Amino acid sequence: MWEGRFEFGDGWAVYRGRTDVNSPHRHAAIQIAAGVDCGIAMRSRESEINARVVAVPSMVPHEFLRANGDVVAFYIEAESPLGRVLRRRIGDEIAELPENLAMALSAIEPENAIAALSEFLDIGRPEAPDLRLSAALSFLRAREGDGSAIGAAAKAAGLSAPRLRELARAELGIALSQWLLWQKLGRASRAVAAGASLADAAAAGGFADQAHFARTMRRMFGVTPRVAAETLM
Question: pLDDT (tens digit, 9 = 90+) per residue, 57-80?
């Protein structure tokens, strides 16, 4: 049974609590999962990983198998300073991180955990993002991730739409379409956390309907919105 709570911050979200098995899924964010007082087991493709702290790159298929205690799982957005460094450091496959990170990541204040992870990675002053991409992403956020606005976002940033898509893939490590879905899922999840019904949350996220919200939630988290809602309220 999933029994915990989500919190949201600037460029990240975090889940704390019990986990359960879920279906294979992949999300646009980079995940750092740690057992608070236990190890965790995760399957990726054909292999099983057993560790205290695990890093999951964006869009890598995986599923939780078990954890005999509480887990803390951070979801770091690919375009954030920490996300850009993580993408370079962990590569394209699920990786085990040092066990001593578990205590730091379990800090009560999520900002302290993020600071500890940043210190561990020694991110210093990360390479500046492409300003054209930053402008386009800001444009799309202001329009709540509307995919039909990609052409307008590209024009505002001085790019063609195909070039914007290429730049997003190169800089973020994910397709722009997946980034847009992740933004929609974030808005819908925040709406659920604020007390909205699943139908209203789907509308707040910009999904065509509740079924589209459900399919995206299952594809990116391996659970249904109804199950997720129990940890978001």
Answer: 999 999 988 888 899 999 999 888
